[in-house]
């Protein structure tokens, strides 16, 4: 590690600490939300430094994009007099120093634990089985073949969260800040091609490099929420499109289950994909799962069942 990269890493760490502190203790809620979004964007750079660009994209799309949109929408629904919270000195005066001390102890303990992890872990075993998985990237092979059950359950948990949110009642009308931010519609038109191109590239790249369904779905979902903010896809709230929306929401999980049952019939093991069918099966599952994840994020943002 050169002095330049060390200085850059220290600058990143200092920036994260400062932005996190500002997001927690600023009295103006809008400024706190903006600092939180900046914190997540800076965290995406940290993931890039750790050579995890797929996680960096998901961090930027979900942490800064989706979470920022949710918080700004909630802030827009608050009464006009609620834009400022209580002064932080009134409630963190007595515990801020113990909290900082505990955070330092926890970070040191975590660093010590990471250093004691076995190296290289299960990398050798994954490399041995990589050719039979149908893809050439170890992460994709683990997520969609070797440990596909974990990924299947993650998609099921997300779908369950959407069902829980929809059970709360009808969807709220999206708070569209286009009246307060006239440039937002123009920005959405400018970014819309990127929100389609980047997920397509991530799906194609996932077979041999970092990428795949989850980062692609996160980026596509962030673009969809931006369109919801400017009310350009009101079809999601129309009753006649509800069956199509439900079908697309469950498409990823349904195809995942179909592949798993097919593996059970062909090999006798659930989610065991024959080598000859592994590559097209994984590609189909990734496309359907990415689309479902994007729609799940958009459905969670609506905070209720559309067209109800």
Q: What is the compact description of this entry?
A:
The protein has twelve helices and no strands.
Question: What does this protein look like?
Answer:
By secondary structure, the chain is an all-alpha fold. It has two domains: 1-59; 137-308, no CATH class. The protein contains twelve helices and no strands. The chain has helices at 3-25, 29-49, 53-77, 89-92, 96-115, 123-129, 138-146, 148-166, 184-205, 213-229, 242-267, 275-302. Helix 7 (138-146) crosses helix 8 (148-166). The longest helix is centred in the last third of the chain and has 28 residues, at 275-302. The radius of gyration is 22 Å and the shape is globular. The protein starts with a helix and ends in a 6-residue tail after the last helix. The mean pLDDT is 78. InterPro entries: CPA3_antiporter_subunitB, MnhB, MrpA_C/MbhD. Belongs to the CPA3 antiporters (TC 2.A.63) subunit B family.
